Amino acid sequence: MENIKELKNILSIPRDIVITSHRNPDGDAIGSSLALYHYLIRNGHTVKVMFPSEYPANFAWMPDADKILIHDIEPEDCNGYLKKANIIFSLDYNALERVDKMGEIIGVSSGVKVLIDHHLYPENFAEYVLSDTTASSTCELIYDFLVMMDEKKGIDLTVGECMFTGILTDTGSFKYSTSPKLFRIVADLLERGVDDYVLQDLIFNSMTEKQLRIMGHILNNRMEILPEYKTGIITLTKKDYEDFNIQRGDTEGVVNQILMMKKVKVAVFIHEQPTIVKLSMRSKGDFSVQEICRKYFRGGGHKNASGGASYSGLSATVNKFKKLLPEFKEQLDAL
Q1: Are 89 and 18 in contact (CB under 8 A)?
Q2: CA triple 49-56-181, angle to 5 deg
Q3: CB within 8 A of 192, min separation 6: which ones?
Q4: Domain residues for 249?
Q5: pLDDT beyond 80 at 248
Q6: Do residues 48 and 69 lie in contact, with contact meaning Cβ atoms separated by under 8 Å?
Q7: 148-177 CB burial, b ≥16 within 10 A, e <16
Q8: Of the candidates 125, 196, 278, 293, which lies 20 to 30 Å from 238 by C-alpha distance?
């Protein structure tokens, strides 16, 4: 990050700060936001964390998660805090459209804007930018940010637990985007008292009976394997959402289930929403689903984990994806 001393000087006196992250926040969005929140609160700032939409229930245990503001639920309060903020942090997203209507206010805000993110192609909307596409997660970058600020001492147990949550979830429990640097950070967090077993249990062993039955339905009735392309597809219709009363978080991680099969190298979850069809893609090895999402489905993300969207309807979207596969067959055969 350029001008880190300048930003450090700005943060040297109490400020009104808003921390924002993307719609449908995941563990990294929540973890990075709350890690930064706890650090800033302890340094005398007035801080609000807000997301466009609600976060999954399996992260409700996180310290002060109940104080997070949701724009879909409290738009007037959120807009008020954004308009009066001296500093707005944008975490785990690279474009203002990722925060929906909040982005319109952030774009015209007179407050200082700080972007901390690890996605490709960041938009130029912030005065201070910490962007590293090689980082495992935004939580890894929050750690780097505090080190750059000479505030490593500010990484207490609470901040460390939040960071570890984002790292753990964005790496798929250390299966993706790892590096020697990341493991040195994780070792430091454990030395500061983070209990990795407890956090794994809180995050991954909190499914309800309903969620488990949804998973059973999906795997039994909504999974299709295309062995010639080493690809698996899961689909969900609007009727599935109605029949099973599927809520936000109920399908968290479902796309990763397909990759548990040895011969499957690409997994796609295509699900029908009220006005849009969303896609979540995962891959193994040196195969970029980011390229597919960016080029064909108005999305992006990381090489092995990306998302996109379509307005063509569920069946048309599935057919479009299948018709793309021959283009990548040579790459898939090499995996």
Answers
A1: yes
A2: 70
A3: 155, 156, 157, 160
A4: 209-333
A5: no
A6: yes
A7: bbeeeebbeebbbbbbbbbbbbbbbeeebb
A8: 293
- Whether residues 235 and 176 share a domain: the answer is no
161 and 72 in one domain?
yes
Q: What CATH number does the domain containing 227 carry? A: 3.10.310.30
pLDDT digits (tens, 9 = 90+) for 302-317: 888 889 999 999 999 9
Could you give the C-alpha distances from 305 to 27, 115, 128, 267, in angstroms and in order?
A: 14, 21, 26, 10
The Cα-based distances of 158 to 57, 131, 170, 212 in angstroms read: 19, 24, 19, 30
Amino acid at 72: D
Buried-exposed string 260-278: b where 16+ CB fall within 10 A, e elsewhere: eeeebbbbbbbbbeeeebb
- What whole-number distance in Å separates Cα of residue 126 and Cα of residue 3? 13
Let me know whether 247 and 99 are in one domain.
Answer: no
The type of residue at 215 is M
Summarize pLDDT for 1-44 with one digit per residue, the tens: 889 999 999 999 999 999 999 998 999 999 999 999 999 999 99
CB 34 within 8 A of CB 63: yes
List alpha helices for 245-313, DSSP H: 254-258, 289-296
Q: For residues 273, 229, 267 and 221, what is the CA-based torsion angle, rounded to 10 degrees?
A: 60
Instruction: Name the burial class of residue 49, with classes exposed (0-12), middle (13-18) and buried (19+) by CB atoms within 10 angstroms of its CB.
Output: buried
Distance separating alpha carbons of residues 112 and 9, to the nearest angstrom: 12
pTM greater than 0.70 (yes/no):
yes
Quote the tokens at residue 96: 């203002």
Structure confidence at residue 47 (pLDDT): 98
